[in-house]
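Field notebook, page 199. I keep forgetting to write these up properly, so this time I am using the form the group agreed on. The chain and the ligand, zinc ion, are recorded exactly as supplied. Prediction of the bound pose follows.
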Amino acid sequence: MNFLDFLRRMFPMAQPPAAPAPAPEKSKSLGTPSSPTASSPVRYYPQTNRKTPNVSAGRVIKPTHIVLHHSSGAYAGSVSWCMDPISKVSYHCLIARNGKRTVLATPSQRTWHAGVSSWQGRKDANSFAIGLAWEGDTYQVPLSDDAILSAVEYLLPILDEYHIPLSNIIRHADVSPGRKDDCSPAAHAALIAALNRVL
Ligand SMILES: [Zn+2]
């Protein structure tokens, strides 16, 4: 799939139809994708790859679900926290409000994002779910279009490779009810709506 074509197709739909003042820099940024290189695929949103220590060494998981989080904190500090062995937490991917993202582990690594958790009779979501987090608090500030679309760009190849249906994209609050409330139902719905446009 050509992600830029997809973005151009769907991005107008992400805007309110009668928006009084569409942000001009938005359409400008759409026309300036990062240039392709021989070694890396074309990416619309910049991606930094890191290797978090907060994984179960030697464990290989076969992800069947995506668990959505928000980090509460700001992007840079949240990346640092995920990279700090003292925190003992990490998502697979953390996405900033402007759409740039850090990938901290491969999909088959067992990162420590969900803690005590269960879903449909299966315990320990870390053993079967990829953790994706958005910067900030999704209850306080709705996700930006860039944050949603960056998640779409990150997830599309993973959903394809592991045959994960959209119904298996769930919230941290779903797997750790009472203990966690992230992410907001609205953030979850926005991601599903965006994915539904391209799948
Ligand atoms: Zn969480």
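OBSERVATIONS:
- The first strand starts at residue 47 and ends at 49.
- Residues 13-39 have pLDDT under 50 and may be disordered.
FOLLOW-UP: compare against the apo run.
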